[in-house]
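Let's sit down with a protein and look at its sequence and fold side by side. We need material for that, and I hope you will provide a protein of your own picking. Once you have written the record down, we can walk along the chain together.

***
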Amino acid sequence: MSASADLLKELRIDRNRPPERSGPGRGLVIGLIGLVVLVLGVAAWALFGRNAATPVDTATVTAIGGGGGAGASVLDATGYVVARRMATVSAKITGKVREVLIEEGQRVEEGQVMATLDPIDANAQRELSAAQLGAAQSETARVQAQLKEAEANANRLATLAKQQLVSKAQYDQAVATRDALRAQLLTAQRNVEVSGDSLRIADIGVDNTVVRAPFAGVVTAKAAQPGEIVSPLSAGGGFTRTGIGTIVDMDSLEIEVDVGEAYIGRVKPKMPVEAVLNAYPDWKIPAEVIAIIPAADRGKATVKVRIAIKLRDARIVPDMGVRVSFLEAAKPVQAVQAKPSAMVPAAALAQRDGRDVVFVVEGEKARQTAVTLGRKLGEDREVTQGLSGGETVVLTPPDRLSDGAAVRVENADSGSSDNSD
């Protein structure tokens, strides 16, 4: 019993006992624990810090002009180079090709022979018409000779009839013969005229075997070869050619673009345009609006616009893809301010502290940049200050995104949107 009481006394807490002093071993343990916690924190940041970056989509800012000359772009569109004067040249008649005198890329002048057809049938028809003309002329000569004799006989009998040396019946018969020959001569002369017209038509038939260029231009396609049958009506089906070749008047080249109905109000006749061929992206070609076609495409909801090219160059050929920028009218020199501007998607704009800002991606960080906005350009906005073009900006920045925040780009850069879409 006394042993149990002694054991209970050992377990009792003595509140008046002074606290034990911590020795050097206990401090070492606490330091080791802190070091382990620090190492674990660094490892956790290394493993999960990259995943903490905000995923974003981006777009590229487009520079749309500076001061001087024509103003900034108000609308962009795409289209093609077309020729207003282009012809697929064919023969007027059906025939077999004898010779082709053109090649692709060759320049031809108006009236130059492009090809010839086999003229056997046309020549035979002409020879027949020439023979018919000769026969008609011979018949006319015969009737003229007979008429001359009949007129002399009628005059002689008229004198004898007055002297009552011949009967009146003989005189009347001579007059009738003379008048009949006069009618025959008139018919023969008409036959000569008809035969002459027939010969001229036969000459045209022979000339139709020669295919000539209707205007000066460049051959872009050679469609027939010697020995083939050509016909303007393609009477022979798949084995008959309908043309000899295609000629394009390079001086008639212009640009046709389709502009969305929502933006056609920005386009005016005589409006300055800057064109860039897809084949030569660094070459800016001056151009001008010719006309707005007064008809809309119901399926595409677009309106066609014709644009004149002010520069003639051999590099510009039909059916080339081209991107055009419709520019503001030129301002007076004293009113022009040399301010570069840029175009940014409206989705890239955000509000921070009551200011318009965008987040420019620099490396893996998003830098908040204040901007001054200009006009609305469809789904884009003009930026007059803060951006110069070429920057990569965050689209639809989340509210939690702040200056210097880590970002992770998830999309392939698609650039600014096209206003004409």
User: Anything to note?
Assistant: The chain has a mean pLDDT of 82. DSSP finds four helices and 25 strands in the chain.
